[in-house]
Amino acid sequence: MKSVKIRTKFDYRAMKYLNLYLLKYKRKTYLLYSILIVLAIAFGIYLFISSKGKDYLWPIVFALVVVYTTVQAFSIEKNLDKQLERFFNGKAVIEQIIDLSQEKLTIAVSTRPNEPVDYDWAYVSEIVELPQFYFLFVNGNNPIILDKSPEAFVEGSLEDLVQIIEEKIQTKPFKKIEKDIAKRPITYVHQEVEEVHKDETLDAVEVESEVVSEKESEETSVSEENKEEVSEKENTSEENTSKEE
Prior knowledge:
Blueprint: E1 4-9, H1 12-26, H2 29-50, H3 57-73, H4 76-88, E2 95-100, E3 104-109, E4 112-120, E5 124-129, E6 133-138, E7 142-147, E8 153-155, H5 158-168, E9 174-176, H6 198-244
Parallel strand pairs: 5-9
Antiparallel strand pairs: 1-2, 1-8, 2-3, 3-4, 5-6, 6-7
Helix pairs in contact: 1-4, 2-3
């Protein structure tokens, strides 16, 4: 079986689909909101009945809680879009190169291209398929994003990737979502921001240190020359004084 090499960009699109899946399916946010709404309604009715229809304060408070929670439940994607726009403002898009084979996964991050990390398939605890991505959850919570777009494949094809995944899901939990979980269109355009690599940063620090060292050495040599000039002048003045006497 062929190995597959995929370039995944951690851009607005990838992060939106990942977070939407986590919110809607992994963390079951809609279910939590529904439970909160039911409890608020139940408490409001109970307090209204227990007061024999005389106390309207708490029923009104719980009614406001129901309205607020309902609005938040229907605004999950809209709020996520705002958060992602703030997150990517002025930030470069990081890329991962994921090399998949039957035996292991090798991941190299664009900020550390010379430090790849290997994962055995045994560490992959769950596989999720969306129309746009595969999410491989390592050790339960850490996601590896596999972009299914044709341009993401550096080596191999989507058919090769599907073949590898189909073999692995025979022994691992697998969830397939066929519908598009994003309702709002993605119109965000990333700014062009230069990515600073770790090695480049170290080089910059080393060069800076060298410049400082050179300046210090020059200043030291100049100060020594000044000292010599001052001592010569003092000796000359002493000789002149002795001659005058």
